[in-house]
Amino acid sequence: MVAGALFKSVKSSLSLVQCAKTSISRVRTFTSVLNDQQHEIQELAKQFSDEHLKPNAKKLDLEGRFPFDQIKRLTDMGFMGMAVEEAYGGRGLDYLSVAVAVEELSRGCASTGMIMSLHNFLYTNLVNEKGTPQQKEIFLCDFTRGAIGCFALSEPDAGSDVASIKTTATFDGDHVILNGKKSWVSSAIEGSALIVFATVDPALRHKGLACFLVPMDAEGVFRGKKQPLMSVSEFDRAVTACDVTFEEVRIPKSYMVGQVGEGFKIAMGQLDQARIGIAAHAVGIAQAALDTAIGYAKEREAFGKKLTRLSSVQDRLTEMSIMTETARLLTYRAATQVSTKNSSMAKYVAGKNATAVADHCVQILGGRGLATTHNAERHYRDARGTQIYGGVTDIQKRLVGHYLLKEHDAL
């Protein structure tokens, strides 16, 4: 009895200590273990990726076809509104569930994984978390059933420097009139609505920004041509990106998300979440490159032995595995403990590591690594883009440093 009571007392004390540690330093309590539901999502995405994405990825890439059939299937499975409330057609899942799904889908087809990631992490989650009931009815319900949402932030002269946005919003009674141009808007050609950031006065910089929901078929909204880019969004690749121009676009004032002056904060918050998706996207590409390299090295012979018996190839495969797993752990942590520092760290490492892993893959395949008949060169193109969109690696490094010093009162 005494021993039992003592054990309970010690166990209770340890629980209190653990709770204290959690509140003091959450980063020290992170675990990469997925729960049953997350494992189920992971396996479902993995099976879909192996059966429906991987066999078609090369063809979609070479022919530059948007993966309509694959996105339709993912919509039917509930993957295009994973974190959305069930009342609006979503599944109400957490960000780690979305991240593991993005990773597995990107492993099979980077283009499909990117479309799903941006739709979930940049569009539906913003409307779900910050939209009014009216906005959700108009701009969310259909977007868990097949409609594609887009995020329009960057401009010809405003990329990383969001405060330099020049697209203007002029209030006219119960309406807002938008004028300006957005660049690199992914899925805009297929999209049905946009999240648009505009300023009421460019001189106010970030204090003048506001966020708006804009139907793509609104009068005065013009799509540009597909942008010729190197990565998954190249003109002959499966993901589209184009400019979107607004000429006297008149929308109800009720389509504004939040208030004037809150646009910058909303945009930064969305990018924090989007970087989780981009990091997961990069991890999936890295895993695909590692799988490709191992598969090739197991079959290819040189100097009388399999490539896997060569120490130089073994070293590369080992580095590839370590870099992929490191990026995966940082991504899972960012999805579990969402913050600017964590998401920037995950994207920084995942993007750089995916590019390095894909480079190793090309090197192991040698001449075949440069051929479009093999997957290695596609993995490299796809990986390189993850260091650019969602905030370049240079910006991520600065953000991590800033918040590190802020945590230690060293600024």
From TrEMBL:
InterPro entries assigned to the protein according to its UniProt record, in alphabetical order: Acyl-CoA_DH_CS, Acyl-CoA_Oxase/DH_mid-dom, Acyl-CoA_Oxase/DH_mid-dom_sf, AcylCo_DH-like_C, AcylCo_DH/oxidase_C, AcylCoA_DH/ox_N, AcylCoA_DH/ox_N_sf, AcylCoA_DH/oxidase_NM_dom_sf
Gene Ontology cellular component annotations, sorted alphabetically: mitochondrion
A GO molecular function held by the record: short-chain fatty acyl-CoA dehydrogenase activity
Keywords recorded for this protein, A-Z: FAD, Flavoprotein, Oxidoreductase
Ranges where the Acyl-CoA oxidase/dehydrogenase middle domain occurs: 150-248
Cofactor: FAD
Coiled coil stretches, renumbered: none
Involved pathway(s): Lipid metabolism; mitochondrial fatty acid beta-oxidation
Function in brief: Short-chain specific acyl-CoA dehydrogenase is one of the acyl-CoA dehydrogenases that catalyze the first step of mitochondrial fatty acid beta-oxidation, an aerobic process breaking down fatty acids into acetyl-CoA and allowing the production of energy from fats.
Protein name (Swiss-Prot/TrEMBL): Short-chain specific acyl-CoA dehydrogenase, mitochondrial
Organism whose genome encodes this protein: Papilio xuthus
